[in-house]
Fold this sequence. Notes:
single chain, alpha+beta, three-stranded antiparallel sheet, two-stranded antiparallel sheet, 5 helices
Amino acid sequence: MAPPSSPTSLHIKYVVFPPSGKPPSATTTLFLVLVGGRGMEIEGNFMKFTGIGVYLEDKAILSLAVKWKGKTTVELTDSIVFFRDIITVKYHGKRPFKRVFRIQEPVFVAFSALNIAMNFHGWISFFILLHYKLPMKPDKKPYYDYVGLWYLYGLLALNLWFGSVVFHSR
């Protein structure tokens, strides 16, 4: 199959968007389908400061060509649907993670468990500080107001991180 026609390369400062390229991890060649530069005119000189190049596989180019055939350049550049078709990437929910010990995401589980440990340590430290290190008020109430709210906050945080462990271990 012959490569589709591609716009010429775009030069912005020292960055060049070539007409086609092959990423290191890909097996197919990608072709430049959209190029654009943004800038401003200063004292009669147009200064480019932003550039964008959109690359697609040849299969995507052919499927878009059928859908957008017969449209003028102005109609395409003014069409939000056209840009959504080009830039929207379909995510099929397939993660690149491997199961280890029947756990889908072991690193996330480990960090969530570490967060549980740190939250529990902070909750216990607050309890010890409040009841054993700080003086009590004359009416035998704790030194801080709203102690029950802080206990509840600590329990909710522990529950949240436990839920994170369960979620990432599914």
